[in-house]
Specification:
Elements (H helix, E strand, L loop, with lengths): L2 H14 L20 H8 L3 H8 L8 H10 L4 H10 L16 H9 L5 E5 L4 E4 L1 H7 L12 H7 L1 H4 L7 H18 L4 H13 L1 H8 L8 E8 L3 E11 L5 E7 L5 H12 L8
Antiparallel strand pairs: 1-2, 1-5, 3-4, 4-5
Helix pairs in contact: 2-3, 2-4, 4-5, 8-10, 11-12
């Protein structure tokens, strides 16, 4: 908790908000810019003394409930609200989820990344879209059942999927997938979707069930990845997972290290034009 910066941000946010913006009348004797402390306190459902102590960098750490009330009253946007939470020493609330809805701008970006295999996935690993080069690399999964489009489900229940990766790396890849899924499920508060996926994987795969019991957690952001393509052979990639504006969607990109054999392998893969139109 940064008391000094929290005090300054709360005071300045209060002074920027006009009383008319929250439904209060502006009297002729008002000299204080923005809301008065007493007005903020009343609208937020806390005591004026409590607001004063925060603005004077005194007192205890505000609870998330109080921060939420202050953020609503001060009409803070999402970035300002998150800033308020962080200054108070709390994790900001989860951002908006997009589910399976894909913004047109993301589809456009996927198509423009013509030289780079790229995929759009949910935080649970459900494949939502991929560009032509990713489709040529991994195959089209658009005609599969919903669960079969999940990368963790495919890894632990479809032996053919593992054939595209060096056997000596299977154990590490299994642990990475489980640890990443654990982190996503926790962020979601073990909602219906994440709980159902974990339960189904636990039932279907003894390997997954054993790894899940280890309670390992690691968000998969980047790594070096090797793939054995049935036509162009082994390709080494630098794997990057980028967040989108939505809390539950990720952009996954695969770039070969400069000067590596993977650059030529991708060129050959692109030349073969092994694509299936419309995998969205």
């Amino acid at each position: 908790m940064d008391r000094e910066k929290l005090a300054d941000f709360l005071r300045r946010s209060r002074e920027r908000l006009g009383p008319d913006e929250v439904g209060l009348e502006v009297g002729p004797r008002r000299r204080t810019p923005g809301l008065r402390r007493e007005e903020l306190a009343q609208l937020a459902g806390v005591s004026a003394d409590y607001v004063m102590r925060i603005e004077q960098a005194r007192g205890s750490q505000p609870s998330t409930q109080i921060l939420a009330a202050l953020a609503r009253t001060l009409r803070l946007n999402a970035d300002e609200r998150d800033h308020l939470y962080l200054l108070a020493g709390h994790r900001p609330p989860e951002g908006p989820r997009a589910g399976e809805e894909i913004r047109p701008a993301l589809l456009y970006l996927l198509d423009r990344l013509g030289d780079t295999p790229a995929q759009l996935l949910t935080d649970l690993g459900d494949l939502l879209a991929q560009n032509a080069l990713a489709e040529a690399l991994f195959g089209c999964v658009c005609d599969l059942a919903e669960r079969d489009r999940n990368i963790a489900w495919r890894w632990f229940t479809m032996p053919s999927v593992r054939a595209a990766y060096p056997a000596e790396e299977h154990d590490d890849l299994s642990r990475e997938r489980v640890a990443d899924l654990r982190a996503a499920a926790t962020r979601r508060g073990y909602d219906r979707a994440s709980t159902a996926l974990v339960d189904e994987l636990t039932t279907a795969s003894p390997e997954f069930a054993d790894l899940w019991q280890r309670h390992e957690v690691a968000v998969r952001r980047r790594s070096r990845l090797r793939i054995v393509h049935p036509i162009v052979g082994p390709i080494e990639f630098d794997f990057e997972m980028l967040r989108t504006d939505s809390e539950d969607q990720r952009l996954r990109m695969f770039t070969p290290p400069p000067g590596s054999a993977g650059v030529e392998a991708l060129e050959r893969l692109r030349a073969l034009e092994i694509t299936h139109a419309g995998c969205r």
